[in-house]
Amino acid sequence: MKPQQLIFTTVIFPRKSSETNTLLLVESIRSFAGTLSENPIWIFTPDSPQQLSTATKNRLQALDTKLISFALDESKLPFFFASELQAIGFAESMAKTDTELLAWLDSNTLILKEPKEFLISDEKSLGFRPVHHTLVGSRFNEPLDPFWTQIYRSCQVPEDRVFPMETHVDNTIIRPYFNAGLLITRPTNHLFRTWHDTFFGIYHKAEYKEFYQQDERYHIFAHQAVLSGVILSLFPKAELQELPPTYNYPLHLFSEDVSKTRPATLEELVTIRHEGFYEDPEWLKQIPAKKALKKWISERVTL
Fold first, then answer.
1. Measuring CA to CA, which residue among 147, 127, 124, 126 is closest to residue 135?
2. Mind listing the pLDDT tens digit for each residue in 181-218?
3. Residue 74 lies in a domain
4. What is the DSSP string of 253-273?
5. Is residue 213 a part of any domain in this protein?
């Protein structure tokens, strides 16, 4: 059997916010993804005593998704995003022979138009978006700081693979720093497994703990920094495809967006990220969207 061209993947946890986010993501794929709207959707959930709600499981089944449990290493859970990273590594190992492309989307994603750019060209190994903010990123016009020096050393990054990249919202030129919430990869390249193994092989070492103690942001975003190092170690720039700024747009940073590409309304975008905007009782008034999209969301959100 010929493998699928692209499989959508995400992770869900047995808590209301995660279940709501995931259902919105899946509903948006089925409603707005155009020719990709019927592609397989694999949803990974930790194998634990706590279970997803029956209503969520029934709705995911009705939306023709594949719910897959994975084993969590409990010793790794205190670290930020450790659960997601374990799911990502497992997803790639499952998909090796099933698809040409794997689209990893954090569950706080909405697809608003057909994501044609997910079908990266044959000569590309990864479709990506830069990080939203500089945060712990390394400014390209400044010397490499100790944290990124350690990341590059741990990931064995060749010096000639480092290139300038512009952040999505604050428009800073930095060294490559990839957003971990949207990644289009080829499972045969083993990016996710390498990221998983590299991160869990180094995150607990003393040289990294020093950074965590200096600034909590290093602790929060270490997984994303390691991802960036691993990508640079595996692929030359020619194999990397930056997706347009209409992809992975951060709705929660809309008011801070100083870029030339800031949209007037969400309808201009292909995919967005959010921080549970629907939890605000005033979201219908505040969200920069037209009536039809607001209606579509409100019909699918229960507070």
1. 147
2. 999 999 999 999 999 999 999 998 999 999 999 999 99
3. yes
4. GGGG--STT--SSGGG-SEEE
5. no
Spatial separation of the C-alpha atoms in residues 278 and 297, rounded to whole Å: 9
Residue 24, number of CB atoms within 10 A of its CB: 22
Select from 63, 39, 90 the least CA-distant residue to 195.
90
Q: Which residue type is seen at 141? A: N
**78 found inside a domain:** yes
Asked whether 5 and 35 are in contact (CB, 8 A), the reply is no
Long-range contacts of 259-267 (CB under 8 A, 24+ apart): 259/168, 259/169, 259/171, 263/288, 264/288, 265/289, 265/290, 266/112, 266/293, 267/112, 267/293
What whole-number distance in Å separates Cα of residue 80 and Cα of residue 212?
A: 12
CATH of the domain at 38: 3.90.550.10
CA atoms within 13 A on the CB side of 30: 16
Question: Residues with Cβ < 8 Å from 52, sequence gap 6 or more?
Answer: 12, 14, 19, 45, 67
- Whether the per-residue pLDDT at 3 is higher than 90: the answer is no
How far is Cα 196 from Cα 85, in angstroms, rounded to an integer? 6
Listed in order, strand segments (DSSP E) in the chain are 4-11, 41-46, 66-70, 99-105, 109-111, 126-130, 165-166, 173-174, 178-185, 240-242, 249-250, 271-273
Q: What one-character DSSP code corresponds to residue 215?
A: -
User: Could you list the residue range(s) of the whole structural domain that residue 245 is in?
Assistant: 4-133+177-192+236-298
Q: With a threshold of 0.90, does the pTM exceed it?
A: yes
Query: Residue 57: which residues within 8 A CB-CB, separation 6 or more?
Result: 67
When the pLDDT of each residue in the chain is averaged and rounded to a whole number, the result is 93
Tell me what pLDDT residue 9 has.
Answer: 97
The domain total for the chain is: 1
Tell whether 124 is covered by a domain. yes
